[in-house]
Amino acid sequence: MQGLIYLYKTAAKNRILKALRRPVTYVYLVGGIAYVTMIASFLVQWAGRIGADTPEGLVTGLSLLVLFLMPSSFATYAKRKGIVFKPGDIHFVFTSPASPKLVLWFTQIKQYLLGFILYLTVSIVGILFFHIVPWKMFLYFVFSFIVENILEGSLVILLYGNEKLSENTLRWLARSLWCILGLLVLFGAFLIFTKELSFQLITDFLGHPFLLCIPVIGWNLAAIRLLLLGPTVVNVICSAAYIAAALLLLVCARRMKCTGEYYEDAVKFSDDYMETVKRKKSGDVVGPGPKARYRKASVTYKGGYARAIFYRQLLEYKKNKYFIFNLYTLFAFLGGLGIGYYCYKTGTPGSIKGYYVIPGVGAYLTLIFSGYATKWSKEMKNPYTYLIPDQPVRKLWYATAIEHVRSLIDGCLLAVPGVIIMGFSPLTAVLYILIYACLQANKLYINILGEVLLGDVLGAFGKQIFQMLFQGIIMCIGIAVCVVVTALTGVQGGLLGLLIYVLIATGAIATGGSIAFQRMEVL
Amino acid sequence: MLEVMHLTKKYRKTLAVDDVSFSVPDGSIGILLGPNGAGKSTIIKSIAGLLRYDGEIRIQNFPGRSPEAKKVFGYVPEIPAMFDALTVAEHLEYIRRAYQSDITDEETGALLARFELEDKKDKLGNELSKGMMQKVSICCALAVKPKVMLFDEPMVGLDPKAIKELKDVIQELSRDGVTILISTHMLEMVKDIWEVMFVMDKGKILASYTREEAAHRDIDELFFTITEGEKGICKD
């Protein structure tokens, strides 16, 4: 226990001190507070507009939060996932004489702290904006923080640390929790289909005795209602059951034997998680789970030096299940269908506005999806890339060539349905596709330039902001260019002007970004 | 004393360790040898309490996972991992508290000096190179003042001076009655210090020798005779 207290206290102190020494922390802090304030004020205003700035409104919001979070977190604990141990914990904590139950309990500390902040915020918001008397909110705060943490902490130990229940039983337990969630969704859907959808209906649903009687999850909702709305027979009984359940689970958790068999699952989950983090950092779009399986494939190298990078990437992609396609291809496809549907419903083929729907959506998609790095970004972390005797610009080109092919395909998926429905010319379609591919290339090279210019100064999030701002500026200039040229020469001239502008901008950024392929130390 | 009795470990359908039994007497230096995939790491991780297993492991006569066993058990894993936000000195302080070890400040200072970590003691875990991490990992295991010590490929990543120091430390520990088990591929590194040898392949112990039983036979010769001989038998 002493060791764990020392570990968590010292680590937290060092982290805070380190963060305070970095100027970027203050930037993030101000940005974060501004963002949270903006979201909160928006929610409060919205609640006011729909007449939900009442105790019932807050109870509805909190109940939805409980329904959204509780079953899924219990299910992850039952699957022995959801708690991430770092490699340092495995090395130094798992092998130490610390009680495995305490180890589990301490990993929850961060969650307790987050819960503390959340409940405190909810209490303040409740008093200020939902017109609830302070003593009730204080009671809610104390009750939620203490009872919910006792319950959740005990459940974590009982589910995660259990050495008697077989893996199969735990799996079924997780499934049954998902079933409860499914039943709730069905019940909600039943109400929506049988009655008219309104805020009152949601409130009725969340206060329905059937829902409040569901063990643990429903009882929690009942306790919230009891504290903030006042007693009813169902509320009181279910709240008492909730407190009794928390105490019972605490006693069971204390008495349960736990020698640390869960360490094996924790080590495996930690390895998978760390691998996923690593893969995400290097640009793969993946979730925690088994390693990717590859098919057999071959490729003929038609050229050497930097071109070999292209063929090696092609070989890797051929081994992939979905070749060069990924989730973004699906988004492009759905975007294309959406545009097609929009054009079908509202299309005015002759109007200038109609011509700019497709490039507009393309630009929007390019901007909102942060620069996802794929195989090209790994090239920059590979020492062999720098050892290849070739020009940095050629290395950059061949490392990113497949991305351009992918963008062209995505551009086709995005543009073709709309073009067909609107009856635009093939030349217009080609311009759309090229503009989209150029915008994507622009994003990609801004990404590389961001790496060169910023390195690790702002962190991953800071780099994303830089990329979005930079590309936003380029797009704004592009819109201005397009408007002027369209006014002077017509729509196709405008599109061509836009394409030429984006090409020049992309070329300039790519030349700057190619420094990244000159020396590894640039990064 | 370290005792492994009928240890069996399956990863789903793969049998990684098949009914393995061995023991390392008090104050002896045991080495666990075997090619890649032989099951050495699984045994080491099972002893360290990181895996579920069938069979029994006893450390100083305590069940392997019990707090009493862990209190007298030091472990140096193959791939060291540090706490990112703790300095080297704070790692040692954590060990002192977690194990209620009676190691003094002078002793931890001497340990750091021995492994040339004095000037690194204020460095955070995520600022260390792999070799440095390995040295810190060794220092932390020694700070436990263990009765049983487990090394998994301890020489990997160490510079020659640190390897020499480690070998000296292992022999000193042995003289002080500490039981040691080293799992390694680097036969050259352990040939002067081993006292009991266990050669593994395919999840089983193929042979075990004490230094006396091996007489003056070279460790490489013994290892290859056992492993290659086994292959020969299989072929027949």
Automatic annotation (TrEMBL), chain A:
Record carries keyword Oxidoreductase: no
Record bears the keyword Hydrolase: no
InterPro entries: Put_ABC_export
Pfam families to which the protein is assigned, alphabetical: ABC_export
Record field: transmembrane: 25-46, 58-78, 112-130, 137-160, 172-193, 233-253, 322-342, 354-373, 412-437, 443-461, 468-489, 495-517
Highest taxon of source: Bacteria
Keywords: Membrane, Transmembrane, Transmembrane helix
Protein name: Putative ABC exporter
UniProt organism field: Lactonifactor longoviformis DSM 17459
From TrEMBL, chain B:
InterPro entries: AAA+_ATPase, ABC_transporter-like_ATP-bd, ABC_transporter-like_CS, ABC_Transporter_VariousFunc, P-loop_NTPase
Domain spans labelled ABC transporter: 2-227
Entry keywords, A to Z: ATP-binding, Nucleotide-binding, Transport
One example GO MF annotation: ATP binding
Pfam families in UniProt: ABC_tran (PF00005)
SMART domains according to UniProt: AAA
Protein name, entry field: ABC-2 type transport system ATP-binding protein
UniProt organism field: Lactonifactor longoviformis DSM 17459
